Structure formats: structure tokens, C-alpha cells
Amino acid sequence: MANRIYSAVVGSGGYLPGSPVSNNAMVERLRDSGLETSDEWIRERTGIEQRYFATDDQTTSDLAYHASLAALEQAGLEPNAVDLIVLATSTPDMVFPSTACRLQHKLAIRQCAAFDVQAVCSGFVYALATADLFIQTGQAQTALVVGAETFSRILDYTDRSTCVLFGDGAGAVVLKASDKPGILAHKLYARAEHEAILNTPGQLAHGRVCGSPFLTMDGQAVFRLAVEVLESSAREVVGLAGLDLQAIDWFIPHQANRRILAMVGKRLQIPESRLIATVGQHANTSAASVPLAFDVARRDGRLQAGQTVLLQGVGGGFTWGAEALRL
Ligand code: UT7
């Protein structure tokens, strides 16, 4: 039997637009709409201290472009080495072409497969699993996998329970076919019966936006479900990788809320020192949150070759999933 082909992570990059927007800046902004919030409330309930917002002339593919360049540079590869782009976003540049194709153009890649994946805050984990399967089956050799969002464009600044939670950004990784692990295991799920607890229902029809173009969320319902599935998917995917939880060096769950991370960490008996948390600095960047956190920890030297990492997404759909990998 031929040896298994693995997907090895050979580079990562991140990009946060503009300058940080503090909680106090959000307090000012909401005051203009007659709403009250406070730095204390946001910190205590979410752990968020700041977020980044794209400038008016920046689109999701612009953010993805900067993150991708950084990832390719770290991998020591020219853009034209890429034969597959999988880009996760819920805030695409336009209805079509895909944001992945727009990114391909910005990177001046002449020809490769390129498409978007839409799984909201689970998007990156879905995209990474998809790219891994292309590599495992020999359909691609070098994949650029990106999570990029401009959630600031779908936030309702008259809803204080959601608009303080999200930010913009992009993260990217480069995968290369290798005979050494690599991505070890992944598992993806969706349970659409929970669509109503987190959605942006608006659609373009007959030249108009029909339905609300803003994000709506039942925060407590999302919180409960997120804790449940982050716990179950961690146990399942670590098992599929032939490991146990104590053998995982780093946990990188979707960065939605510090309290969710703490609760899941407690249930899995993972010490905080093995949990990567960037929600305080980035807020919730949806599909960008996991690759951004991965890149931060890789660049600051916490993630080291040979270590094992668990990546986890959870979000609208309702969707969730996880990947175990060896660096
Ligand atoms: O990426 C996946 C999607 N997102 C998530 O995973 C988020 C999951 N959910 C959460 O993180 C939390 O549920 C929230 C942070 C959204 C809310 O925290 P909570 O502890 O569940 O608060 P709550 O919704 O129960 O609201 C408590 C109070 C309410 O006031 P009353 O009714 O008790 O008087 C809210 O009106 O906090 C009020 N509130 C605020 N107060 C100040 C809600 N938003 C704000 C705000 N500032 N921004």
C-alpha cells in the first residue's frame, strides 16, 4: 500500500486592519445611537478589550491578501507555487466571483483551483479539512487556506448585545504535501435546526436587499451550544488522531468569548497555559479567528515543530468541527 500523504503546515500569516478600536471607543460610538455600554461590561462578559475594523476602502479579499502574503513569505514560497485556494468567509467581497478568486487575482496567481467555504465561525476549520482532503488524495500539492472577514459591515450598531463582540481580520496557512504528519484527523458537523440562534438573513433579490442585512444572535443559546460542541468535538477528534487530551500541546478554539474558552478548558481539564486566547485583542473575527490565533502563537514562539495542536471552530449554521495536527 502506498504511503499516506499528509498536509504539513509550512507557513502562517495574519492581518488586522487599521488601528485597534478600544471598548471605550465603542462606548462613545454607541452613545451616539443612544445606547449604553461600558468597558467593564464588555471585559467581564467576554474578555474583549479591543477589535480592529477595516477601512471603508478595504474588502475581505484585501485582508486575505495581506495575511496570505505573510503566510507565503514564511513558507518561502512564491504565490504561483499555490495550486489550491480555499477561503472561508461569511462576508464576501461580492455575490460572485468568489473572494478566493479575487484573492487569486490580487496574488497574481495565473491559474489554480479557488473557491469559498461558508461555515461562519467554523469556516476556517471547514476550509482546512477540505484542503487537507485535496492534498491527501493527490489533487493538490500546495494549498493556501484562508479565513477572512469584514464583520463590521454586517453589525447592527443599534444592538449593543452583538456589535461590541466582533472585529475584522484575516489569517492564512500554507499546506504542503508531505510524507510526515501533518494534519492527523478532522471531523465537521452541522445541525441546521439551530439556524435561528445566529444568522444574517438578508439576501439580494430583484435589485434590493430583502430581509435584515445585520447579524442577529441569541447569545445565551449560542453560548450553551458552543460549550457543548467544543467539548465533544475536542474529545472526538483527539481520539480520531490516536491521542488523548493530555498529549495535545496547544488548544486553539474559535475565539468568541473568554468565558466560553474557560468553561471548555475546565470541562476538558486543560490548563490555561495550553490554551491560545486572542479574543481579548482581536474580538470575534469569525472565520479569521482560528488562523489569526494560530499565527500569533506560531510567531511568538509558543508553537514549536513536533508539537500537537487542536484547532476548533463553532458558529452559525449551526456548525462546528475540529482538526488535530502535528507541527
Ligand atoms: O462566534 C460564535 C458567536 N458568538 C458567540 O459565541 C457568543 C456567545 N454568547 C456570548 O458570548 C454571551 O451570551 C454574550 C456576551 C453575547 C452576552 O453575555 P450574557 O452574560 O449571556 O449576557 P445577557 O445576554 O444575559 O445580558 C445580560 C444583561 C442584559 O441586561 P438585563 O436584561 O439583565 O437588564 C443585557 O441587556 O446585559 C445587557 N447587555 C449589555 N449591557 C451593557 C447586553 N449587551 C450589553 C452591552 N453593554 N454591550
Tell me the count of domains: 2
- Tell me, what's the shape? globular
Structural class: alpha+beta
Estimate the helix proportion, in percent.
25-40%
Side-by-side strand order of the widest sheet = 1-7-6-4-5
Helix and strand pattern: EEHHEHEHEHEHEEEEEEHEHHHEE
The CATH class of the largest domain turns out to be: Alpha Beta
Weakly predicted, low-confidence segments: none
Mean pLDDT: 97
- CATH topology grouping of the largest domain: Peroxisomal Thiolase, Chain A, domain 1
What percentage of amino acids are in beta strands? 15-25%
Largest sheet: 5 strands, mixed
- Classified in CATH, the superfamily of the largest domain is Thiolase/Chalcone synthase
Our count of helices gives: 10
Specify Rg, calculated over alpha carbons: 19 Å
CATH architecture of the largest domain: 3-Layer(aba) Sandwich
- What are the distinct ligands in this entry? oxa(dethia)-CoA
| Cα distance spanning the termini | 25 Å
List descriptors.
single chain; binds oxa(dethia)-CoA; Peroxisomal Thiolase, Chain A, domain 1; five-stranded mixed beta sheet; globular; alpha+beta; 327 residues
